[in-house]
Amino acid sequence: MNYLLEKNCLRNRYLVMRHGHSLANEQGIIVSHPDNGCHGYGLSELGQGQVELSLQRAPGLDDETVIVSSDFRRALESAQIAHAALAARHPIKIEPRLRERYFGELELSSDQGYSQVWRADADDPDSEVGGMESANQVMQRMTSVVVEIEAERRDATILLVSHGDALQLLQTAFQKQDASWHRSLLHLETAEIRRLELA
Q1: 104: buried, middle or exposed (CB in 10 Å: 19+, 13-18, 0-12)?
Q2: Helix/strand/coil for 70
Q3: How far apart, in whole angstroms, are the C-alpha atoms of residue 40 and residue 22?
Q4: Reported pTM
Q5: What's the first-to-final CA gap in the chain, in angstroms?
Q6: What's the CATH code, domain 3-196?
């Protein structure tokens, strides 16, 4: 069950940032296993610049912003740039539940493989074909982060730094849509920052 379906309002403001262009993007490969993503494949030089530029354009962020980040290197490096640019007063909270979706046997293969995963999602959001993490599993762990923040904080601005599919599914939850619909929503570009509000 999508917890956000039961909510009419939230106690905090949520913005999300997809990590900047990474070395995995540069090589055109899928990096989704923690053994690879936590220690390698950080931001490319292009990605660092993307994050800096995106922060300059993003409204509603200041030194009181609470940054919560995936522990994958490309996301954490993006969060660190954001933290420095905002002179954020709160330390970055590292949150493994914001990790990249796990793509199973597609790990380290061409990123052209994403399309077959998305087709499977549209047919069945519980699909775990090829050992991948299902769309519903990703939605559940992403929304669980919001549930926890809602219990701990009030009137805070939260910046969640994560990954393409993970954030796609989180915004689907905010729109109170089934996980199978996630590719029908406008996707986030690398380093894009977007405000999420409940439908």
Answers
A1: middle
A2: coil
A3: 10
A4: 0.95
A5: 16
A6: 3.40.50.1240
> 162 falls in which pLDDT band (50, 70, 90)?
very high
CA dihedral 199, 61, 50, 160 (to 10 degrees): -50
Residue 177 structure tokens = 């849509």
Check if the beta carbon of residue 175 is closer than 8 Å to that of residue 183.
Answer: no
41-63 pLDDT, tens digit per residue, is 999 999 999 999 999 998 899 99
Report CA torsion sign: 168, 170, 175, 181.
positive
Which of 66, 16, 7 is closest to 190 using CA atoms? Answer: 16
Exposure string for 112-125, b = 16+ CB within 10 A, e = fewer: ebbeebeebbbeeb
